[in-house]
Write a structure and sequence with these properties.
It is a single chain. By secondary structure, this protein is mainly α. Helix content is 42%, strand content 0%. Helix 1 packs parallel to helix 2.
Length: 62
């Protein structure tokens, strides 16, 4: 799922998602931020908060 969202983000905005900024975050957090960006057509700007949009995905466990 993460890979698909990363491809969609790049296709939509013409640039890579700044994945390096999330090296210490859970995968589900990155998935939710990416999903929010792609579904709302909004570039990541450093202020997007993690919301649990997708509740059952790899990396979900605490």
């Amino acid at each position: 799922m993460l890979e698909v969202l990363l491809f969609q983000y790049k296709d939509m905005f013409g640039e890579d998602f700044p994945l390096a900024e999330f090296k210490d975050r859970r995968e589900i957090d990155v998935i939710n931020i990416l999903y929010d960006c792609v579904s709302n057509n909004l570039r990541y700007d450093g202020t997007r908060l993690v919301r649990n949009i997708i509740t059952d995905a790899p990396g979900q466990s605490i």
